[in-house]
Design a protein that fits this description.
Length: about 120
């Protein structure tokens, strides 16, 4: 099973490119890690402090996330393996990772968090 950070980073890169945009080297993956950390935070396996640190790093590395809310459906198509959910590996703050089910509503909430970032 693939790490959700990579799935999300690849989707961000793809959707940005489809709209004539691009991330600095490593930028899409940095935002992918931030999104996966938000999912982990939602499951109480990541602290708010660690999440904000990843968000700040992503912003410093590549600027704001390149994502319009009009692109959410495309992002969901690329990231969710069923119409309303996916199961993926999510990193944990202190060690390792866990397999979690990410619902569409949590996924959309995470995208909103990234856009606010």
């Amino acid at each position: 099973m693939t790490d959700f950070s990579i799935i999300l980073g690849n989707a961000l890169q793809t959707v940005a490119a489809e709209h004539g945009l691009s991330y600095a080297d490593g930028g899409a993956l940095a935002w992918g890690r931030t999104g996966a950390a938000y999912i982990s935070y939602s499951f109480s396996t990541m602290s708010a402090q660690a999440l904000r640190a990843l968000q700040a790093t992503a912003r410093e590395l590549s600027g704001p996330v390149l994502l319009d809310c009009k692109w959410y459906d495309r992002m969901a198509t690329l990231c969710l393996d069923r119409p309303d959910r996916t199961t993926a590996v999510i990193p944990q703050e202190h060690a390792g990772a866990s397999v979690q089910t990410i619902t569409e509503s949590l996924f959309l909430e995470m995208l909103d968090f990234l856009r606010e970032g």
